[in-house]
Specification:
The structure is a single chain. The protein has 349 residues and is mostly beta strands. Helix content is 0%, strand content 44%. The protein has no helices and 29 strands. The strands form 7 sheets. Strands 5-6-7-9-8 form a 5-stranded antiparallel beta sheet, with no helix packed on it. A 5-stranded antiparallel beta sheet has the order 21-22-23-25-24, with no helix packed on it. A hairpin with a 4-residue loop joins β2 and β3. The two termini are 24 Å apart.
Length: 349
């Protein structure tokens, strides 16, 4: 589940998107096939990595970055990248120590917040193979399986703030990790799962857990290519109308959603990519956009069972975040749900 290596295009090939990070309401960033990074959104706290720009509604290349292998974004407006050489760079809002520089040479952005307007090397981190985002916390998994984290809350060791990366001694032989609002899900290099929240009780090593935004649920693709979800269900994000809270994770969601290649979870919904490139979603997912949705928690509209998303095929990946969902097709085209037009529209990065 580690992020794919940056692809190197042929000289005649136009760079295309290979990963979209939507974990922020402030900024959205896309990793390109040529190893560069492009971001758009607000620059109040330096999230665009470009001094002198207030905001941008179109993607801008972040200067000085190359060989980007993974990008993560936070709701607060901080961004970090992992590079092919195993180093990490961060920038943006530094109120919660997310830049990882110990506040050395901090600048001051809007409202006097500590920030960094340009990508800054996180000192002491080498051979990083995976980055993970928690609730105002970041973790880096190194090639030796050790975990190093920084931030102001929800680190894997409770009650600890770290302005620079510190090793989490209790975590060893880790391949990757992800966070939810109830704790961290850890996958070890031998395939075993571990976690400190009720969302992760019965995941077998043969299952592939979904990446996704901070949320109250998680889903996984099982060996039979079915999808099973666990956690809270106020918006139908478990795909099971009979469940209000499922802590077993042993029920296959219906109707017969099998033959699934990958699944992704957002704040209040989930989506799966079928073997034929079709896209299925459930919960409070903007991609559905249907008038006949169910009434879910708080009177909102949602789909309590998986529904096929109309108007899109040949789907390669789906990226879900706090407020946006992006769909990448196998022809490298990228599509976003346009709330005004109530349909998927192509977006050129």
């Amino acid at each position: 589940m580690d992020a794919a290596r940056a692809e190197t295009p042929s000289p005649a090939e136009t760079p295309h998107v290979v990963e979209v990070s939507t974990g922020s309401l402030v900024v959205t960033c896309a990793r390109m096939s040529d190893g560069t990074l492009r971001c758009m959104g607000s620059n109040r706290f330096g999230a665009l990595g470009t001094p002198g720009v207030d905001a941008s509604r179109v993607p801008r290349v972040v200067p000085g970055l190359s060989d980007v292998a993974q990008v993560v974004t936070w709701d607060s407006g901080a961004v970090c990248t992992r590079h092919g050489d195993g180093r990490v760079r961060c920038w943006g809002d530094n109120r919660f120590h997310l830049v990882g520089n110990g506040h050395v040479d901090d600048e001051r952005c809007d409202g006097g917040r500590p920030c960094r307007r340009t990508p800054t090397l996180v000192e002491g981190l080498t051979e990083v193979r995976h980055l993970a985002v928690g609730y105002f916390a970041a973790c880096a998994v190194r090639g030796d399986g050790s975990v190093w984290c920084w931030g102001s809350s929800s680190l894997p060791e409770r009650g600890v703030d770290a302005t620079r990366p510190r090793r989490i001694a209790s975590l060893r032989d880790v391949a990757w990790m992800r966070a939810s609002f109830v704790g961290w899900l850890i996958r070890h290099r031998d395939g075993r799962y571990a976690g400190d929240g009720y969302l992760y009780p019965l995941l077998p090593s043969s299952a592939e857990a979904a990446p996704g935004a901070l949320n109250w649920h998680t889903c996984a693709v099982w060996p039979d290519q079915s999808v099973r979800c666990v956690g809270a269900n106020p918006s139908g994000q478990l795909g099971d109308p009979a469940a209000s809270l499922d802590v077993s994770g042993d029920r296959v969601i219906d109707p017969g959603l099998c033959g699934v290649r990958a699944v992704q979870t957002g704040r209040e919904g989930s989506c799966a990519v079928g073997l034929g490139g079709e896209l299925w979603c459930w919960g409070a997912v903007d991609l559905l956009g249907a008038a006949d949705l169910d009434v879910c928690g708080g009177g909102g509209r949602c789909a309590r069972r998986p529904r096929r998303v109309a108007g899109i095929d040949r789907v390669a990946e789906v990226f879900m975040g706090l407020a946006e969902t992006w769909v990448l097709r196998d022809d490298h085209s990228l599509w976003r749900w346009d709330a005004g037009a109530r349909r998927l529209t192509r977006f050129v990065w």
